[in-house]
Amino acid sequence: MHAKEVISRLSDRKPTILGSEKFHEFAILLPLVDISNETHLVFEVRSKKMRQQPGDICFPGGRVEKDDINERQCAIRETAEELGIREEEIDDVIPLDYMVSDFGRIIYPFVGRLKKPEGIEANRSEVEEVFTVPLQYFLETEPEVYKVNFQVIPEANFPYDLIQGGKKYDWKVRQLDELFYQYNDKVIWGLTARILAHFIHLLQANQS
């Protein structure tokens, strides 16, 4: 194959994330509500009947489906389904930075405003409980940070003879910062805490 043909085949392509075709895509919403003239964030406690992460605290959201127009519409649809509200009651939906996780997921977070929080009626098949936390709490509270170390364990038939150093190869052990927010009896951690911290950082970086 000549260089001209290489350029011709690739000239119109748009770059994406390498391997993203194998990733699962999710969209979530950070819902804002006004309670007694103060802005709160809405959180969910996942149903204990859920197969994945039962009882964990999260934002409403879910997997991007083929029928979704885009990730934003998915976040709105999932929020409406989980909180028992109409999609029209979700307004001012703005994208945050998307996240590529280590476990084959791309997560698209958005922030938006719920017009009628008093109408929330959680879908009990997915949501155990709904609660709110004042936004000001997060603006004034730094999360606790703990390190998680990832160990490299090659499979039994790994071809050490094909790499420099063989079994003595200097694998780089990765560390992950795991964030924790504690509010009353609620513990917010994991991807939810990471996305929340990113949101708070954006607010603080853009304050006038």
Strand content: 35-45%
What is the radius of gyration? 21 Å
- SS-based structural class? alpha+beta
Tell me the distance between the termini.
Answer: 56 Å
Overall shape: it is globular
Secondary-structure element series = HEEEEHEEEEHEEEH
- Approximately how much helix is present in the residues? 10-25%
Q: If you average the pLDDT, what whole number results?
A: 91
Number of strand segments: 11
Low-confidence stretches: none
Main sheet overview: 8 strands, mixed
The tally of helices reads 4
Describe this structure in words.
By secondary structure, the chain is an alpha+beta fold. It has four helices and eleven strands. The strands form two sheets. Strands 1, 2, 3, 4, 5, 6, 7 and 8 form an eight-stranded mixed β-sheet that branches. A hairpin with a 4-residue loop joins strand 6 and strand 7. The radius of gyration is 21 Å and the shape is globular. The termini are far apart. This is CoA pyrophosphatase. InterPro entries: CoAse, NUDIX_hydrolase-like_dom_sf, NUDIX_hydrolase_dom.
Topology summary:
Layout: H1 3-10, E1 24-35, E2 38-46, E3 57-58, E4 61-63, H2 71-83, E5 90-95, E6 99-100, E7 105-114, E8 127-134, H3 135-140, E9 144-150, E10 174-183, E11 186-189, H4 190-205
Parallel strand pairs: 1-7
Antiparallel strand pairs: 1-2, 1-4, 2-3, 2-8, 5-7, 6-7, 9-10, 10-11
GO molecular function, one term: coenzyme A diphosphatase activity
Cofactor: Mg(2+); Mn(2+)
Keywords: Hydrolase, Magnesium, Manganese, Metal-binding
